[in-house]
What does this fold into?
Amino acid sequence: MTAVKGGAAVAMGMWNDNPVLAMRWNGDEGNPIGNPQYRGLPTWFIVPDEFRKAILDRLEEIAPEKHLLAKEYFMNAIVLTNTIPLPDDRKQVQEAVLRGIGKRIEDERWTVKIFAPADRAGYFIRIQGPKNFSREFEFVGQDEMPAFIEQAVRNATR
It folds into this structure.
């Protein structure tokens, strides 16, 4: 959850077995309960799916450390490990892998591990998925580009 005193709060959760964003206004000194509320108790509303991308994009600006976690929540893939030392590279490679996997059937779960060895150049990426899917990739040199990684993952996981 991301909250700002006197501002909005955004949370991820499940509603009718689907991942959703929920929101509410936190309130202020004049209205400490915020809005929405029901019988004096704070409540939340479910954000319609068509507004999710805009909210996640804004989350990237105000809480970048939570952005990837939130994006993963709405995908069927989660990155368990990412040891790329440079934050921008770490983020770009991770997003490329997640885009490559893409949105899947709800009961499919994919896990990703991204390693940048300390003793040599390149990235090692291990992806596991349903039906015993397991694939390891090594990306070195020009192959380390996020667009190349995304396409390689997409080709392998389709």
Notes: The domain at 75-158 is CATH 3.30.160 (Double Stranded RNA Binding Domain). The helical segments are 52-62, 64-73, 87-101, 146-157.
